[in-house]
Specification:
Length: 134
């Protein structure tokens, strides 16, 4: 619909097409496409001075959520497991302290090692900086 409307005619309708497309993509769980369409809609509505529509598009954009963390960012659980492991605790001790299974500790450590580009607990201690207090 947006392509069918000439650029110089009805710019508000062209921006509304972006809003509808963004909403449809969000509902179809196509987040990247939805984010692109909604950000463009916010920009166009703001440029047109259509504050109510810009707020509506911004609210839709907020419903998508934040961007996914980078591949190297540790999750909260990975951070806790890594700090405890860097502090010298065994997998069983970490599991007992965090109320998770030893297999979960192993899986978290494997992800931490991959994300940090290391392969041993000694490297983990150096990568995590100061170990957590016992």
């Amino acid at each position: 619909a947006r392509a069918a409307v000439p650029a110089d005619v009805l710019p508000l309708d062209r921006a509304r097409c972006l809003l509808v497309a963004g909403r449809a993509c969000r509902r179809a769980r196509r987040r990247r496409e939805a984010r692109e369409a909604l950000e463009a809609a916010v920009t166009e509505f703001t440029a047109l001075g259509a504050v109510a529509f810009a707020e509506r598009a911004q609210a839709e954009l907020a419903r998508i959520g934040r961007r996914a963390p980078t591949a190297t960012a540790l999750t909260a659980t990975e951070e806790r497991v890594a700090r405890l492991a860097a502090g010298g605790r065994t997998n069983r001790a970490i599991a007992d302290e965090l109320f998770i299974s030893p297999k979960t500790v192993e899986a978290n450590l494997a992800r931490v090692y991959r994300k940090l580009g290391i392969s041993t607990r000694a490297e983990l201690g150096a990568a995590m900086g100061r170990p957590a207090p016992r």
